[in-house]
Amino acid sequence: MQHLLTGIRMLDFTRALAGPTCTRMFAEMGAEVIKVESAPGGEMGRSISKSCNVSKSGSERSLYYIQQNLNKKSLCIDFGSPAAMDLLRELVPHCDVVVENFRPGVIAQLGFGYEELKRLRPDIILCSISAMGQRGPLAQRPGYDYIAQAYSGITSMIGEPAQAPSIPLAAVGDISTGVHGAFGVAAALLHRARTGQGQWLDIALLDAYYHYHEVSVHQCSASGGAIQPSRAGRQMSYVCPAGVFKVRGGYIILMAFMHHWADLCRAMERPDLEQDPRYVNDTERLARRDEVVAIIEGWLERFADANAAVAYLESFDVPCAPVLNIAQTLKHPHLVERGTVRTVKDRLAGEFQMPGMPIKTSGYPANNELQAPLLGEH
Amino acid sequence: MQHLLTGIRMLDFTRALAGPTCTRMFAEMGAEVIKVESAPGGEMGRSISKSCNVSKSGSERSLYYIQQNLNKKSLCIDFGSPAAMDLLRELVPHCDVVVENFRPGVIAQLGFGYEELKRLRPDIILCSISAMGQRGPLAQRPGYDYIAQAYSGITSMIGEPAQAPSIPLAAVGDISTGVHGAFGVAAALLHRARTGQGQWLDIALLDAYYHYHEVSVHQCSASGGAIQPSRAGRQMSYVCPAGVFKVRGGYIILMAFMHHWADLCRAMERPDLEQDPRYVNDTERLARRDEVVAIIEGWLERFADANAAVAYLESFDVPCAPVLNIAQTLKHPHLVERGTVRTVKDRLAGEFQMPGMPIKTSGYPANNELQAPLLGEH
C-alpha cells in the first residue's frame, strides 16, 4: 500500500486506545505495523463494544478493536514463553519504531526497555505512552483518561459553576495523546534520517490534556491568582454572548461577541440593543449575561427548530451551528462527503460507520478497504 | 538550536490558535518558522490576554501570543503591497513547508494557493487548517472551535442529560487540530524525503473533534440507531461506578467499575456490597447508578478533603484522582517536575507559567529560554 509512511515498520505493544491510535494512524498511512497481542485472548480492546454488534455473521467481533486497529498485522504470543521473547528480539532489528503504553516500567521488565532495544538496534525509536508520564511522583497512577484529565485541571473547566463538573463522553485525552505520540515518532524519524540517532519519547495524557489550556494557565499565573479560571456551564466566560442557546427541540451554538453583536442585533431587528450602553461591548454584556441570554432565547422561540434558526442567523453572518447528536452526524451531507464519518466493511462484522482518518492529503485519497486483523492472523 | 526538527524551514501564515499550535510545535523542536504578520498590528492573537498582564515592564504584551508563538521569527508586511508579495514569493523556494489557517480559498486569493506554491517550489508541502475543511457544503462556516464542536456531535456528549450541554473552557479542538496538522506535515516531510514529492494537507477541527468518538459513532451506526449515545453528566454511561464524586470541599474522579468494585468495597469495609446481587456487575450497578453514587458519596463524607480521600483509596488500589483547579495545577509537584507546567521568562512580560511542550524526548531536554518574537523583529 502506497501512502505517506510506506516503508516504515513498527513493533506495536499497545492496548486499548491512546497507544493504538498512534500506531493506527501510522498503519492508515502505509506503515507496516506489527501488533503484538498476548495469548490466548489478545488485547483488552477485543472485549469492548461487542454487545452492540448486530453483524450479519453473528460473530462476536469487537467494533472497538476494528476502529482502533485498521490495517495492522496481529502477532499473538505467550509473553511467558522464552521462545516468544526470542522471536520478538529477532524482530526488533527489522523495526524502525517500537510503541508501547504499559504502566511505566513494565516494558523494561518484559525485556524491551530503551536500553535493551538500543542493544538490538542502535537507532531504534521507542515511543512510551502513559497516563502521567514515565517519571515523577504520580508516574505509577492507573492509566484511565479521566484520572489524567482530573490532574490536568481540564475537568474543573467543564460543567455548571455551582455543580459537580461534567465529564465528556468521548476520548478527548486518549485520542489526542495518540496523535501527539504519532507526531513525536514522525519527528524522531526525520531526526534519525539526518543524524542516524534513535530516541525515546515520553508521551503522557496529562501533558496532552494540559496542552489544551490556551489561556487559563497563563492568566492564573500572571495575575498571581487574582484570576481563578473555572467552569462556566454553557457560556464562555470572557466574551458574551458566546455559547449554547436553547431552541425548539434542541440547542445551537451562537457566537455573537465583539463585532458579531451588531449582526445579531440586525438579525433580531433590535437596533435599540446595538445602541444600548448596557450591551455596548463584551464587558457590559458579560456583566448582564443572564439578561442577554434571556433576550436571545426569547427571540429564538419563533423558529421551528435548530436548523431553521441557524439558516436565518447565517443569512446575517452570525456565526452559529446546530448542536448535532451522534445519529445526526452519521448522515450529515458535509460529514459524509468529507469522510469525517466513513463506512468500513469488516470481513466478519459487516458494514458500519466510524470516524474517518483526520489527516487528509492531496496525494492519497481515503481508502475505505482497510481491515483490522484477526487475532494472530499474521 | 539543535532539536528533532532542526534544518526544516516553515513559512507561517497562521493566526490565533490551531495554526499557530502546529507551527509552534515545529519551532519548539528546532525548525526555523517565519511567521508572516499583517501590518500594522500583527496577528489577532496579539490582542488577547493583555488585560491580565501584570508585567513588571508595564508593557501591554499579550501572554496568549507568547504562549502560541515561542521560538518563531516575525516578519511584518503589508498584504496590500506588491513589493511585500514579491518578497514572500522570493521566500517560498527557501521553505520546506507553508502553513495557513485562513478561511478556505483566502490563501489562493492572496496568491499562495497550492498550485501557485508548486510553481515556486515543486516539492512544497502546504498544510491548510480550517474549522470544517477545504471542501464540502459547510466549508465556508466561520472558524470558531465551538462551531466545529457542535457539528461533530462532541458538544452533545457533555453535560447533564436533561439540561443544555456544557462547553469545555479549554481549546480541546484548536490545540488538538494543530497537533494533527503537525503530524501530517512531519509525515509529508518523510514522504518527500523518499519520493521527492510535495503534498497539500487538509486538516479540519471538525475531523479532529470527530476523531475523539472512540465508541459512540460505531455503536449508534451498528445498532441501527437502537443505541443513541448522549451526555450523562458526571458519570460514564456504560460502566459503573466511574465518574465525578463529591467530597468535602471539592470533587474526585473515582473509577471503580469491573474488578475495581471489589477493591472499593474493601476500602469501604463493605463486604456485603461485593456479594450483593444488586451490585454484582456493571450492568446491575448501572441500573441502580443513583443508589451506587449515594452510597459512595455518603461514605466519602468521612474524609477531610479530596487529597485525604484519594490517599486512602489509593492504598486499596482503587483508581482515583482529585479534580484539581487551575491554581492547584500550577504548584503540583508532579506537574512542575515533569514540565507539564513550565515557567517562561519573556523579555517584556516577565516571568509566568504556561503549559509545557507535550513531546518529551530523551535527546533534547526542555528548553525554557525560548522567546516569542516582537512584531516584525526579524
Summarize the structure.
With 378 residues, the first copy, chain A, is α/β, with parallel strands linked by helices. The first copy, chain A, has helices spanning 18-28, 63-68, 82-91, 106-109, 114-120, 145-152, 174-195, 205-210, 216-222, 260-267, 271-275, 282-287, 289-300, 306-314, 326-330, 333-338, and strands at 9-12, 32-38, 73-77, 97-100, 125-130, 199-204, 242-247, 250-255, 320-322, 341-346, 350-355, 360-361.
Written description of the protein model:
The structure is a homodimer of 378-residue chains. Chain A is of the alpha/beta class and 378 residues long. Chain A is 35% helix and 16% strand. Chain A has 16 helices and twelve strands. Chain A has helices at residues 18-28, 63-68, 82-91, 106-109, 114-120, 145-152, 174-195, 205-210, 216-222, 260-267, 271-275, 282-287, 289-300, 306-314, 326-330, 333-338; strands at residues 9-12, 32-38, 73-77, 97-100, 125-130, 199-204, 242-247, 250-255, 320-322, 341-346, 350-355, 360-361. In chain A, the strands form three sheets. A six-stranded parallel beta sheet of chain A has the order 3-2-1-4-5-6. In chain A, helix 1 (18-28) links the parallel strand 1 (9-12) and strand 2. In chain A, helix 1 packs across helix 7 (174-195). The longest helix of chain A is centred in the middle third of the chain and has 22 residues, at 174-195. Chain A starts with 8 loop residues before the first strand and ends in a 17-residue tail after the last strand. The mean pLDDT of chain A is 95. Chains A and B meet through helix 2, helix 6, helix 7, strand 6 and helix 8 of A and helix 2, helix 6, helix 7, strand 6 and helix 8 of B. Strand 6 of chain A pairs antiparallel with strand 12 of chain B.
